[in-house]
Amino acid sequence: MTKDKCFYVGKIVKTHGLKGEVTLRIDNEQFDEIEELNYFLLELNDILIPYFIENITYHSNKSFILFQDMKTLEEASKLVGTAVYLPLELLPEKDGNDFYSHEVVDFLVVDEEKGELGNVREIIEYPTQSLIQIVINEKEVLIPIHDDIIQNVDREAKKIFIKAPNGLIDMYLGN
User: Fold this and answer.
1) 36: pLDDT confidence band, cut at 50, 70 and 90?
2) Taking residues 146-157, what's their average pLDDT?
3) Does any domain span residue 47?
């Protein structure tokens, strides 16, 4: 499996206990959407390798994992610093104006007043706010993802219709 068909979950930050468990720091809120989990894909030497879960417990933004066939602290310590992924297909489908960050990259953003603005470059996730990044005339424009702004997500047409707050777009463009 390749990274473009997966989403980043987090990173193994340390070992946990003495019996081969590891601590996974979860950096992706999409991970909460998954109900049943049998394995993780660990990035080792630029290749995603499946590691099957024997036991997993959750605590806040961390999980403690014992992988099958891993029974020693030495084996677990080799995984510290490893990036962890899961296939996109494990995420439940969203509908309406809810979307996953990866799902809307390259969608065209259309403002109610200004018309077509440009394509989504990426979704920038901050702790308090997620932002749509587009580029207009070589200038970055950041649009907050908020129910008052996102009017409609048309997955078929690959468009996001917005009603930008007065002056937001002009502020970035210097108009």
Assistant:
1) confident
2) 95
3) yes
